[in-house]
Amino acid sequence: MNAITAPVEANTRILINKSLENLGWILDVKNVKRNVFLEQPKTEKERKRLGGERPDYVLYAKDERGEEKAVMVIEAKRPGKRIDTALEQGIRYAKVLDAPIVFATDGLFCKSYHTKFDRTPILNGEEVDEFLRETLAIKYLAHWEVNTISPKVQYDRKELIKIFDEANNMLRGDGLRAGIERFGEFANILFLKLISENERVKNESGKRTAFDDSCHWDIIKQIPKSGRLDYINQVYGKLNNLYKTEIFTPLNIRSEDILKEIMDKLDPLTLTDVDSDVKGDAFEYFLKESAATKNDLGEYFTPRHIVKTMVKLVNPQIGEKVYDPFCGTGGFLIESFRHIWNTMPRNEKTIEMLKKDTVFGNEITNTARITKMNMILAGDGHSNIHTKDSLAEPVDGTKEGEGYDVVITNMPYSQKTKYGNLYDMPSNNGDSVCVQHCMKAINSAADNGRIALVVPEGFLFRKDLSKTRELLLKNCDLQSVISLPQGVFLPYTGVKTNIVYATKVNQKLKASEKRKDFWYFDVKSDGYTLDNHRRKLDSGNDLDKYQEYRKLDDDQRQDMLDVGFEIVPLSKVKENSYILVGSRYREIHTNDCKYVSKKLSEISALIRGISFPKSAQKIGKSVDTISVVTTKAAQETGIVDDHVIFVEKSYEKTNRCLQYGDILISLANSLGLVGRTTYVDKLHEGVSFGAFMGAIRPDKQKILPRFLYYFLNSEFAKQFFLTNAKTTTNISNLTFEDLSELLLPVPPLEIQQQMVGELDGYKRIIDGARAVVAEYKPKLSKFSEFESIELGRVDLFEIQSGGTPNSKNGSYWNGDIKWITLVDLPPNDYITKIYSTERKITTAGLQNSSAKLLPIDSVVISSRATIGRVGIAKVELATNQGFKNIIIKNKNIITPDFLALSLKEKTEELLQLSSGGTFKEISKTNIETIKISVPPLETQKQIVTQIEAEQELVEPSKKLIEVFTKKMQNRINEIWSEVD
Fold it and tell me: How far is residue 977's CA from residue 565's CA, in Å, rounded to a whole number?
């Protein structure tokens, strides 16, 4: 039976039919207005043109002249066949019928094509991946790109972000705290605008609702400003009654003028559109854009395409209960609600069930209010959203009437919890308890309880979580692990993540009934750039490949292997501490060579550094001392002799001296520097290394030292270091036990040598460019004729020290306040303007530290360990205790840019004023003695402009470093067949 005649699966046909009916298409053969024809086109003439071939679906609509014509062809994926095969078939049919749009689908996952323009059609800037209603399909007769959101709405949505920025400043002046408090206040007002627009659209289309007109924006804005605040608070009471909720709380704004000004700015905007399918889009757009720029709400936002992939994966149905225990602003629940709405049979009973008894979510922060608003705008389902810590109230799915059919979430990472004793495997590790909570919440009586969880990469392999992974495999049928590329969640976090998908949760299956393996799929590209900008790429994305095979059908096993899926035997997983990283079990073939993965401990010796008291350190080299390399001396570019220290010879250990070809690795450092490697490229006779360092000594019969060095500098290895490092207040630590588990493929020595030759060539180019960057040090003119001012002058400066909250209190992390570490001040940048940060703390975390929230344009300077890195705060932030922070009280005397440049130039002076052993520090008192020459303000600005122009000349060298670093990375990745 060929692809044309093979039958379509009944479930696929049902899904397609229901989706089309819900979009208003007419399939009933008895209806004279029928516009969908199955298995053949409408007219005899068209049937003859097709020569007896039978498209699955042909959809018709009237064009602008009133003539009925074929506008869409839908081809269903046959069992065992590719979506692309169905798409090619559909394109051939559509061209014969002169239909512009083609869909190939398995019922949920769709690919589309425009036959007139030979490309994927675009709707509102995104590729079309869902069926189109008739009025929208007509618009594609003459165009491949359609916008249902009017230019005014598009413009106004962008204006919304600017208005929030302005409102943010106004609310700051009104005494509201940064982050969710100000955002929540603005969201309350914005909701009134959006719900009023939604109601207007409904009324214009003839729908009548229970919405009280007195709550309408147009009525509210007519209330005099003196009484408007009280009136709005009464409106919130009416809305609470209408939606049977308590989410609308009185506004905290004290100033009537500020309230009026915010409303006046919002009033001219149009944020929804009669042609927009989802009226809540404006709200979600606002969340995304404000989070992606300056307002630090990113921890609550999972990218829409990731959400859609996961929802299609679990495929929730009407009658099932969907739960997100860490729901943030509700992205997973809203998409689940939409998914069920689009695919379910619609009647009074199912609609009521969807609204009242289908989606459930908890959020520990007050963001739950925003989730409820978002759900109301999306169509309802808000009544089961609660503000609470899910971990404190585990759901026992084994009890009758308890639990859910589907759990889908992006869980919080690397948290501590005090509720671990409530779970089967007690722990204070949040990663363990979050996963346990999700499993436990599945109703054991469900036909197919399933979970789809976004987890940090470390969950898949960390030793302290091996028992949790064992429990996962015991209680679930693990179907697949999807490895997402690092950068998917930028600009919010750089943590590498994975999607874990499991079925038959809590069903206590017999061993014979369970899978013997699981599918591992490595996503190289998700369709967007993997940087803070996350721009859409024209190239395809690997998530589509996964979606096509998400059913994991055995009859497509070979196709899945061909597109990059890997089979991981659970027997091997159990032998390896239940590690779920698929690449750990990968055997790589290139031509006729088989590259076997080996642990680092199998191909090299790991040597510890020497320990010595501070009193053993001497000022200079002598016959009674030995040279010791510390983390400061061991740089990426090599050993810096000026920073080698000298220690009493009695601490010498001959078996811990450096040899040519050793690779030094930093075992204790800041998180961004832990794991930094240094290649020992010359003989350092009698030179040892300190306790914060380790030496990796390759077995040259198995692996070339340079080859291993390049591998240890790959992104793969760096991610391994980051996820395995144990972080305390200031320092991250790697252990030899962790390092020994690092797996890498080992090609034959002759192939290693070829690669080393190529990579060495790239490195020479990079080193040359780095020399240009390193040698450029902007020099300020001597301003002896102008006044020199001390940083200790209290009328001009306020100097604050940073402070670090207790790292054992997990509730302090993942808050709304930006908090910087050395990671946020790159070592190669002369001055860093700080707009975003790697870490964030809560208000309680700030209050339980000695740090203060710094105003914009504060100058921050690293004052511990790596002294002299300078940054300018372009957002409100706090710093850890490794920083001193300078607030300029009079910017008419000195500008932040000029002060930052002056401080950077005084790095050597700062170092001389510092004190301490391995980690030097400069005190606040010593910083106050620094003198800065201050020319007139206009001269300062001219100097800054000139230096910025000089830095532009250095930028090409930075670009060269970037390009050839990428080439090196790609070459290394080829060993794993992972070229981007």
Answer: 13
Q: How far apart are CA 933 and CA 765, in angstroms?
A: 39
Phi/psi at 743 (nearest 5 deg)?
-100, 140
Residue 567, burial from CB neighbour count under 10 angstroms (0-12, 13-18, 19+): middle
Residues near 513 by beta carbon (within 8 Å), at least 6 away in sequence: none
Q: Note the pTM of the prediction, 2 decimals.
A: 0.64
SS3 of the chain: helix, strand, coil, percent, to 5? 40, 20, 40
Helix and strand numbers (H, E) in the chain are 29, 43
> 3-class DSSP state for residue 126?
strand
Q: Which residues contact 923 (CB under 8 A, 6 or more apart)?
A: 863, 915
- CA dist., res. 397 & res. 446, Å (int): 9
Does 301 score more than 70 pLDDT?
Answer: no
Q: Which helix (H) or strand (E) holds 304?
A: helix 304-314
**How many whole angstroms separate alpha carbon 668 and alpha carbon 849?**
24
CB 946 within 8 A of CB 810: no
Distance CA 715, CA 674 (A): 14
* Helical packing angle, 256-266 and 151-173, nearest 10°: 170
Would you tell me how many other CB atoms lie within 10 Å of the CB of residue 576?
15
- DSSP 3-state of 813: strand
Amino acid letter, 807:
S
Bridge partners of 235, per DSSP, are: none
* DSSP secondary structure letters along 741-760: T-EEEE--HHHHHHHHHHHH
Which is nearest to 371 in space by CA: 339, 410, 412, 327? 327
How would residue 290 be classed by pLDDT, with cut points 50, 70 and 90? Answer: very low
- The arithmetic mean of pLDDT across residues 727-746, rounded, is 76
Collapsed DSSP state (helix, strand, coil) of residue 599: strand
Q: Looking up tokens 């890498």, which residue turns up?
A: 744
More confident residue, 67 or 104: 104
Is-contact 322 316, C-beta < 8 A? yes
Distance between CA atoms of residues 311 and 303, nearest Å: 13
Decide: 705 and 696 in contact? Cβ < 8 Å.
no
Residue 880 in contact with residue 903, Cβ under 8 Å?
no
Which residues are CB-contacts of 222 (< 8 A; sequence separation ≥ 6)? none
Q: Which residue has the tokens 């790589």?
A: 588
CA dihedral (570, 573, 579, 584) positive or negative: negative
Q: Which two tokens stand for residue 111?
A: 């690919």
Which H helix or E strand runs over 350?
helix 348-356
State the Cα–Cα distance between residues 49 and 29, nearest whole angstrom: 23
Angstrom distance (rounded) from CA 551 to CA 106: 10
Helix (H) or strand (E) holding 263: helix 256-266
d(CA 346, CA 552): 30
Rounded Cα gap, residues 890 and 885, in angstroms? 15
Q: Would you say 651 and 690 are in contact if contact means Cβ atoms under 8 Å apart?
A: no
With bands split at pLDDT 50, 70 and 90, how would you rate the model's confidence at 730?
low
Question: pLDDT-derived band of residue 492, with 50, 70 and 90 as boundaries?
Answer: low
**Which whole-number Å values give the CA distances from 396 to 384, 424, 451, 501, 925, in the listed order?**
17, 11, 15, 20, 57
Determine the Cα–Cα distance for residues 872 and 548; give it in Å rounded to an integer. 47
Q: Which of 758, 790, 801 is nearest to 972 (CA)?
A: 758
406, 428 contact by CB (below 8 A): no
Q: Which of 58, 59, 20, 17 is nearest to 39 (CA)?
A: 58
Token digits for 238? Answer: 């009416």
CB count in 10 Å sphere of residue 242? 16
Q: Is residue 613 scored above 60 in pLDDT?
A: yes
Judge whether 407 and 361 are in contact, CB under 8 Å. no
State yes or no: pLDDT of 274 exceeds 60. Answer: no
| Closest alpha carbon to 840 in 858, 827, 853, 826 | 853
Instruction: Find the distance separating the first CA and the last CA of the chain, reported in whole Å.
Output: 38
